[in-house]
Amino acid sequence: MSNIFSRILVGIDGSDASSEAVTLAARLACEQRSQLIFCHSVNWAPVISGMVSAGTMLGAAPIVADLKQAGQALLDRARDSAMRVGALAETRMVENDPARRILELATDEKCSLIVMGTHGRQGLQRLVLGSTTEAVLRESTIPVLTVHAGMKYADASHRCFESIVVGIDESEASDAAIAAVLELPVDERQRVLFCSAADLSNDAREHAQRVLGKAIGLARARDIAVSGLVISGTPHEALLIVAQQQGADIIVLGSHGRRGFQRLLLGSVAERIVRTAPLPVLVVRLQESVPALARTTYGPKEQGANSAA
User: Fold this and answer.
1) Which of 55, 119, 211, 226 is the most exposed place for a label (fewest CB within 10 A)?
2) 147 has which bridge partners?
3) What is the pTM of this model?
4) How far is CA 143 from CA 13, 103, 129, 283, in A?
5) Domain limits of the chain?
6) Per-residue pLDDT of the chain in tens (309 residues, 90 and over written 9)
7) Is domain 158-309 annotated with CATH 3.30.460.10?
8) Sign of the CA dihedral running 264, 269, 272, 276
């Protein structure tokens, strides 16, 4: 798996959350010397449809032209913002069906990461760009990084994602998240904490310990230092609390992809984290090329995960 920050596509719409996505992506591009593309979809079809319904088609062309002009202005501002922090960016304007166009562009441009903004807290139906972010999260075959307006990031003396919290279970989607984190550049994973949720029963905690042991064993096989933690309580709340306590820069989760957003790792847990997390969330899509860690046989080194209640 190559560096997921190597070629970054950012979907923008002019909202505060979108501006946050621009800021973070530009900083990532500077740190990683990444290629950066800003994309805006001029979704004029609903406008035309509304005008047809109202019987006012004569004014459609100027309105579409105004939408395109406004879209280009958004792209120019995003590019200028990136340039001010030292990142060079390209811009792309597409038309209609924002989610589909963003996904098509990501494929055409061979992008390794999509960055999107979300409103958060108002429910998934209120994700930025209407249902666009939800659709991108559900359908994307490459990782998607989501951000909210007003998020706090590591200061300029640190890299963006030095401290990473990864929510894991025994699913193959979780394997995808683990694999992605372990492939990150070493500067972007100086502190990695795997978290597995369990209730207070001994069986559940022992199972969570085994899940952590497998992930830690894989990291040790690559000489990567990581730690593990069994978390209890409401899973999404527990994961967010741990991330705050650890001073994490990002939460990483896995996704089953096309089976629907409700099939994200840990069921509705990831949905709630994407919506409410006060820090960036990276959602990694399960791919056939990612081996299932749960089926891997590890040696003695994986035993004894460093975990706590």
Assistant:
1) 55
2) 117
3) 0.85
4) 20, 11, 18, 6
5) 1-151, 158-309
6) 458 999 999 999 988 989 999 999 999 999 999 999 999 998 866 666 666 665 665 666 777 888 899 999 999 999 999 999 999 999 999 988 899 999 999 999 999 999 999 875 444 444 333 468 888 888 898 999 999 888 877 777 789 999 999 999 888 888 989 999 999 888 888 999 999 988 878 898 999 999 999 999 999 999 999 999 999 988 889 999 999 999 999 999 987 654 444 444 444 677 788 888 999 999 997 764 444 443 343 333 333 344 333
7) no
8) negative
Do the first three CATH levels of 1-151 and 158-309 match, i.e. the same topology?
yes
What size, in residues, is the chain? 309
Overall fold of domain 1-151: Rossmann fold (3.40.50)
